[in-house]
Each structure stands twice: as structure tokens, then as C-alpha cells.
Write a structure and sequence with these properties.
heterodimer, A: mainly alpha, 2 domains, two-stranded antiparallel ribbon, two-stranded antiparallel sheet, disordered N terminus, B: alpha/beta, Rossmann fold, six-stranded mixed sheet, four-stranded antiparallel sheet, 12 helices, 41% helix, globular, AAA+_ATPase (chain B), L-valine transmembrane transporter activity (chain B), L-phenylalanine transmembrane transporter activity (chain B)
Amino acid sequence: MADTESTPSRPARHLDFSKVVKDLIVTTLIATAVFGSTIAFRTVSAAGGLGLEVRYDIAFYVIAAVVIGRLLLWIFVWSKPPGTSAVEMPVSIKSGLAKVSAKVGKGFGPTMLLFALVFPFLPFTDRYLLDLSILILTYVMLGWGLNIVVGLAGLLDLGYVAFYAIGAYSYALLAQYFGFSFWMCLPLAGILAAFWGIILGFPVLRLRGDYLAIVTLAFGEIIRIVLLNWYQFTGGPDGLSGIPRPSFFGLPFNRSEGGFADFFGLDYSSIHRIMFLYFLILALALLTNFVTNRLRRLPIGRAWEALREDEIACRSLGLNTTSVKLTAFAIGAMFAGFAGSFFATRQGFISPESFTFIESALILAIVVLGGMGSQTGVVIASIAMIGGFEIFREAEQFRMLIFGLAMVIIMIWRPRGLISTRIPSIFLKEKKKVSADMVAQGEGH
Amino acid sequence: MAHIVDDPVLSVEHLNMRFGGLLAVDELSFDVGRRDITALIGPNGAGKTTVFNCITGFYKPTEGRITARHETGETFLLERMDDFKIPKIAKVARTFQNIRLFGGMTVLENLMVGQHNTLMVASNYTFGGIFGLSGYKKAEKEAVELAKYWMEQAGLTKRADDAAGDLPYGDQRKLEIARSMCTKPKLLCLDEPAAGLNPRESEELNKLLLFIRKERDTGVLLIEHDMNVVMGISDHIIVLDYGKKIADGTPEEIRNDPSVIAAYLGVADEEVEEVEHEIEEGAS
């Protein structure tokens, strides 16, 4: 028995002829309805107005391709005996993948860190790649920050970009009105964002699920619209420009005497500042990761995860769920505040346009794609999403389409994200990974 | 016919709970002894879980007073406290009819969450813990020791690093009790701990509950349908029907109480007269 089961290379074909014909007729009708109208007719500018170009032949080819494709699917994929999955990966590939991912998993973090540290000095690294990696690292940091709220505490936050905006505007405004330096503003921006995180936290304490998501979404929009309309204070749609650049502990990055290059006896190069920004965001991101990992092993972090698993059980054990939720919002927001003030100092110019809902969606997509709660997953997802955006910059019109498709395919393949296992925060004898099926997703999923 | 309790850890007095037009609990008064196992029984819909929810703060009672007493003489009025403060300050812990574990967290992690408040103080509300101060490390070690102790008692030591959601049903019940015990309660309220357990598992549960009473000086209040558990281990039984107390006494008294037999087990048609007669006799 075992032999026949292990060689399923030639399963018996089950083809119900009438069913296939019916399906193909329906396919033809749907394809005709869709492509008949969209491809067969095309408006062209002709002399004296618009003209209509008729392209029945192209429409016919497209419809034929759809029907033939469906027929091939029937013959080769859907004809397997019932019980076997339609798109099953061969066993050898599956186990191979598992082996590779287990091996990669162990050394992945340190390898990535080492690579990130030497990256700016590699021979092929140019200004463009450095800028791109600064962008990626910003999203890694934002992803890690949001991971606290969504991945650990299980509170779906669709307005995370608001805290990013608060961080950026805090720095810009404090620098403009009081002349504070970047290093003074960085903690202040974090504290202000955390404060606003608590402000958002209070009204949503009692909300769950969809309602929580909608209120956080509204909060994100409120912040953006206030920034847009408070013209006297924030500059409104004109934004704020002339935001001071960061200095290397008081040494500015310029050609002047006493600048960074002069002090260290180097030839002045504009890449120094970019490299500094790169290491700055790397340090900030690593701080986020370090603090998050540390918090996970403290009672507060376990309380976040317990909140995600079961809020009522938390209360029955004497956990004050109000403060557990508020700390999650506040600490998540604080890291967004840090990232925001970094963004402001890097750009030198900010406007409400940089903080639209699409940014929130992008950060959330990174967290979900990476696997909620997984720190490594966020890194992989950020590289894939932001790096992928850059690769497809040429195909600008289709960029979103390609991305949508890629996301759909990945989420079918791995519904709980790229890295879906949970690593326990404490163990007695052996650190066993917890499979995603056990882990609850929290509110709003 | 109220059962006299010398040193009550919990007193419920004139408890009323109204949901709209329905009076779920009606003028209920009873005491729970400090080192007793007290069972709250009654037919389905008698209001047992409602009483539990009032005691543990998940419902605010319409009327009545619920007092918890510690050995030190401190008293806590539970009906005025926030639900999370009842286990934290008044030290009354509970479990749930449908098990509520943190399924994606390991057995050990579940037990650590149970000690949240102690650890929170030890970590200086996170500020000390994040810088790795030694005070927190020591407290964490002690917390792991307490968790190990309860894993041992519940027979879960081998599964310490497995996800709680992976455990078999009986072990999940025991883990929920162990997790509540990690809050170091003075009174443990168990909502149908033996539901869905096989005879061997319910025997293990009995042992665990007797151990808790004997070694830990913790009172136990439990709702249960399994008469083996109720009659086997309780010191004191309270019977509810339609929100009213119909009997209160030792297992022996309850076993022979005709009104309990009538209400709880139901009465066969041919026996109705006989039972009514007995009740009348008992009343007079």
C-alpha cells in the first residue's frame, strides 16, 4: 500500500465531459462580456472628433486564450482524483523548502545585520542604492513599531501614519519655532507621538474588530486634515521647508571649516551625509527591534500577547486591560514618532501629502505580509515591498497591479504571512515554535 | 436551614440580579468557608454562572452585597470593585465554563501571565526590567519556580514548552486552574471544571482540588454538574433553582433533601405526589 501511495505521479483522470462543456460555455460567455466590450471597441481621435476602431480579431484571440487556458486546467490540474489538492506542490520541493527555511532561519538575523553594517562600504553601493536602503530601513522601523500594536497586542490600527506625521511635524515645528537641534527633538518627537497614541487609545478602548479599525482610520485622517488646514501653524499644503539637517554630534555635514569632513581630515563628499543618515536609521531601527524583543520578555509584553489571545481571560487574572492597551498604542506610536523626525530631517521638507492613508496601508501590508508578530518577517516584507516598488518603477502604470497580484498570490500561499510561527518569550527546556494555527489574531481580523 | 460557616472567606448577602424583566438571581445569601470546597449546584438556567459573574465582577449586581475577607481581617466589597481588581486586590480568581487559555502561548507563558501583577511591580513597571536590573531577574526566577510548582501539581511539567492550544482537553482545564492559582488567590471560583472530562481526568481534577484546599489554604467555590466531583470532595453544597436558594448544607444533608431531588433531578410522574408529601413534611 505504501508504495502505491507514495507514487502519485499518474493518478486516474476523472473528467466529467458534460460538466467541462458547461463550464467552457460559461467561461466563453463571461470572457465575451468582459473583453467584448473592453477590447473589441476602441475610441481613437479621428478627424472631426472621436472615431471608433473595431477590433473583433484581437478580442477573439483573447477570448480563445481564456477558454483554451480553462480547458487545459480541466485536463491537467482539475482532473486529479478527489482528495488531492488542486495545486499541490510536489513533496520533494516542499520538504526541501522546509529544510532550506529552517537553515536560513537560524543565521538569517545576524547575517542581515552584518550585511546592513557593511553595506554602505561595498563597492557596488552608490547614492541611489543607499537612498533606497534608507527608505527600506524607515519602513522596517515603522513595521516594527506597528508590529507592537497589531502583531503583539492584536489591535488593528489603520491610522498608524498619524504618529509618523506627528513625529515629523514635531521636529520641524520645534526646530522652526525654538531652534532645537535634531538630537534634542528626537526624544521629544517620540514622547509627543506616544502622548497622542494614548489620546487615540482612550476612545478606542472599548471598541473591537471593525469599529476599532474604522476609528483608527478616522484618527489618521483627522491628523492629516488638521495639518492641511491649520495654515498659520503648519503651513498647510505648502508644508514646512528648511528643516535643519542632522549633525554628527555637533559637526555639520558641509564644506565649511569645522565640518564633519574637515574635522576628520577627509575630502568633502556629499555621500558622508547620506551614509550618516543610513547609520542613523539603522541604529533607530535596531533600537526599535531591541526594545521590542526586550519588552516581549517582560510582563508588559506577555500581557500584550495575552490580550491578543483572550481579553476576558486577561481581566480574570487581574490584568488592567486599559493600561495594557494604552501602553501598546503609546510605545508603537513612540517609534513612529522617532521615524517621523528622521523622515523630516532626511527630506528637509514635509507636507501633509507624505502622510496619506496609503502609507498606513503600506505599513500594515508589510506587517501582515511578514507575518504578524514576526520581526524577521517585517524585514523581508519591507525589502520585498519597497524594493519591489523600485524595480517596477519603469512599469509605472502596472506597478500597483503587479503588486496587488503578488500580494494575493503570497497570501494564498502563506495566509498567515511569510513567517507565521511564533517564538515563545520564555522556555523551560526547549524553545519550540508555536504554529500559526494556535495563535489568535486579536481584534479586528 | 442556612449552613453555618465559622470563618467565611466570601459572604453573599441579598444578591439580586435582574436582566430586563428576568430576575436571574433572587435574594440569594450564602457563605463560603475559608478552607472549604463549596459547590454551587442546580439545574440548567438556575443562575449559577450569573452568581459567579457577580462575584468576579463581570456583572454588577442589581442589589446586594458581596464581601471577601482575608485572614488579616481586611474586607473587600466586590460589587464595588472593577473586574480586574477582584483577582488583583481581593484575591478572588476564577476559571470559565468554556476554557479561556492563551492558546498561542506556551504552558509556561500562560502561568507567567497569571503572575503579571507581581512581576509588573518587580520590573518597576517595565522601567527596571528594560535595563535588566537584577531585582527583576530574581523575581522572574521566582515566578518560574512558582509556575514549575503548579505545573508539577497539575501534571503538566512535560508539556511546559508546548502551546496551550495544543494540549488535550483535560490538561487545558487543569492548566486554567493552575494559571488561576498563580495569582495566589484566597478564593478560587471554578465554573464547571469537570465538564467534558473522562472519569480518569475528573479523578485527577478531584485530587488537584483537594490538594489546593489542603496545602494552599485557598477556599474553592465551584459550579458543577458532575455529582461524583460534587459529592466526592465538597464540604458544603448550595442548591439554586430559578435564582433562589432551595437548600444549603453538607453533602449528606443535600443528598437526602427531597426538594433538591425534586428540583435538581426532576421527578418521574408517578412519584410527584410522594415527593410533594415529603416536602410538606419537611416544611412543617
